[in-house]
Amino acid sequence: VQVVESGGGLVQPGGSLRLSCVASGFEGGGAIKWFRQTPGNERELVATFTTGTNRRDYADSVKGRFTISADNSKKVTYLQMSNLQPEDTAMYYCNFFGFEGQGTQVTVSS
């Protein structure tokens, strides 16, 4: 099983980033999630995509700014983030049916 996130980086407030996640080594369906975490803080569930229904759910903190998409047949998911703010700075993790990657760092700073 392999889950690999990419696309993080340094961006100015108001900017955008698209995170990508590619998974392999397993089959199935269910919930594809993006979490984020900063040192010393609890992990926050940012967005969920439910395969089969294509339902998308978001944390209130990112609603209207972040968009999750996924293609389960290709085992890929994306998190499009816009109007980024310093409080969005965190390590972002992709969770594919319980399998998780090492994360990609997003830093929002001027």
What is the H-and-E element order?
EEEEEEEEEEE
Structural class: mainly beta
Helices, by number, come to: 0
- Give a quick account of the main beta sheet: strands, pairing sense, barrel closure: 7 strands, mixed
Would you count the extended β strands for me?
11
Average pLDDT metric: 96
Using only C-alpha atoms, the radius of gyration works out to 13 Å
Strand content: over 45%
Helix content: under 10%
- Report the uncertain regions: none
Structure description:
- The chain has no helices and eleven strands.
- It has 110 residues and is mainly β.
- Strands 2, 4, 5, 6, 9, 10 and 11 form a seven-stranded mixed β-sheet that branches. It has a four-stranded antiparallel β-sheet with strand order 1-3-8-7, with no helix packed on it.
- The radius of gyration is 13 Å and the shape is globular.
- The chain starts with a strand and ends with a strand.
Topology of this structure?
Layout: E1 2-6, E2 9-11, E3 17-24, E4 31-37, E5 44-50, E6 55-58, E7 66-71, E8 76-81, E9 90-96, E10 99-100, E11 104-108
Parallel strand pairs: 2-11
Antiparallel strand pairs: 1-3, 3-8, 4-5, 4-9, 5-6, 7-8, 9-10, 9-11
Please describe the structure with a list of short key phrases separated by commas or semicolons:
mainly beta, about 110 residues, seven-stranded mixed β-sheet, about 55% strand, 11 strands
Quick overview:
The protein has 110 residues and is mostly beta strands.
